Amino acid sequence: MTTVLSDALDRLLKYLEKQRYWKTIQPFFLTTFGTVAAEVAAYQYVKSQYNLTQVPLFLGSYISTRILVSGAAVLVLLLLFKVNPGRRNRPAPSRLVALYRANRTTILYRGLLIATVAVASGLVFFATSPTRASRITIRFFDLPSDVRSEAFTYLVYEINRIQRQWYFDIDARPFNTLELSPAEYNACNPEGYDHVQPLLCYAERKSESQGPIILITAMPLNDAYLATHFGIASVITTADAAYVAPITNYEYLAYMTVLQSMLIQLDAQGTIPADAFVPGPTSSGGAFEFIPARDMFKAAMLAPRLSPALEGQIFNRFGPGYLEVCSQLLSLDWLYAPRVRENLSKLFGVTLSH
Amino acid sequence: MKMRSTSAALGLLVVFGLLIGRFLWAAIPGGQSVAIDYSAEVPGANGKYQFNIPIEPVMFPLQTIQGKYRLVRLRISNSTTTTLALSADRDRFEVLLDKGATAVAAVLNPQRLDPTFWGAIDVKTRENLAYPITLKGKPESMPGLPTSESLYMYVLVPAAQVSKLPEGFRYTIASLSQTIEIRLPPTTRGATAQ
Lengths: 354, 194
Fold this sequence. Notes:
The structure holds 2 protein chains of 2 kinds.
Chain A: H1 2-18, H2 22-50, H3 55-59, H4 62-81, H5 96-102, H6 104-127, E1 136-140, H7 149-162, E2 168-171, H8 182-188, H9 198-210, E3 213-217, E4 227-230, E5 233-237, H10 249-268, H11 297-302, H12 308-318, H13 320-330, H14 338-348
Parallel strand pairs in A: 1-2, 1-3, 3-5
Antiparallel strand pairs in A: 4-5
Helix pairs in contact in A: 2-4, 4-6, 8-9, 12-13
Chain B: H1 2-26, E1 36-44, E2 47-55, E3 69-78, E4 84-85, E5 92-96, E6 104-105, H2 110-113, H3 115-120, H4 123-129, E7 134-135, E8 149-158, E9 168-173, E10 178-183, H5 186-192
Antiparallel strand pairs in B: 1-2, 2-3, 3-8, 4-7, 5-6, 5-9, 9-10
């Protein structure tokens, strides 16, 4: 395949070289060829580094966009340089100052063009740059009796250890609602309103001073099950964990922590999928899909999957490394690794479900 | 002339010496602790609870928060194996003054009892002053591990009602169904009752 393409390119070049307009189009041809080559090389690099094999996902990514923008910028400059307002009066080259004086118009024109194209390209680069996700603090409101905070803390530290994209802080202080101001507390517990979610409201208030936060509780949530989320705050409850039995609370909490972190990070960047958790009668097991029946959650948890649209959003917002980490953490393979399993069993007395 | 200037110099020296001496008399030697310790101990399941309140006698009557509350720092140690549950609404903390005087109740839940004060202080201070909700029990017995879990908490005492050193404190913990009197040890009680 490569040989065929190479032969075709050689023939095309030989044909073009014989044409009288070749000298004119040569720089444009070479720039286009270089852009395509850069795209192929970048795809090969991402493929080898992050196991990403989907070409459409790559073509829609910020990496591909940057290469295209760079190539387009060079093409625009080449085109505009063809127009030379000072060419008519060009004198014979002499000393540097004389050369500058003689070509002042051309130099200013080209300088202005370069600056304009560079600024435009920079804006595209800035708009499409991935942002490193921030730290997330985990706090315990209360834990179920079968979960030891130190064992769960160990799991969180394992997540921090095995990758460099995500960082969790554990706040060892029990979550205390007395820390809230009276106005905050009253706003979270409005009288005569049944659909209020005080725990999520508390987490939101704390996130204002602590940054992104995940609150873990054993208490049931009002009008929600498994977890609830808004902005950069999430609450995970173990009150509904019986639906995933015999999966242990540790596995459940590890999975939910990863899932809620993704949600927090996407929401913080304003790129949460529009169809995330929208109620519907069907589900294909996507991580951000609404689960129509609680007992279906176990199946979704055991076979976690990111939809192509979600993969694209994560790739473009946080980069390919982050996307790989999301898939890796969500699969819980790290949790079932012999090292972690053995540490949990021997040092914390925790046996995983499978 | 010479005699006069010598007298003046001597006079200045005496005044200077008196001033220096005055400062020295006002200070407390640094080799001793300036705080007095109120303490109590009650037994629990497989261990005990210890309560300590250090008070600095010079600073206590002088320092207040917003002229409204004095801070009492209480250290609780739990050497039992069970978690101690605390509740700002069900527990009670009182300052005992002179014999016969009414005990002064501390404010454990300012969020509910003094919302104006609580809403006006910053987040970090609220975090530090909030009445705790739990104190873990000691870790399972293993060599090298501490034999108890401890925490410090701050109690807000109405400044207008407590202007001098307390006789002691009365602390009721609902989850223990017990009232604990935290007092000075007998030896220091006489020395500080000035």
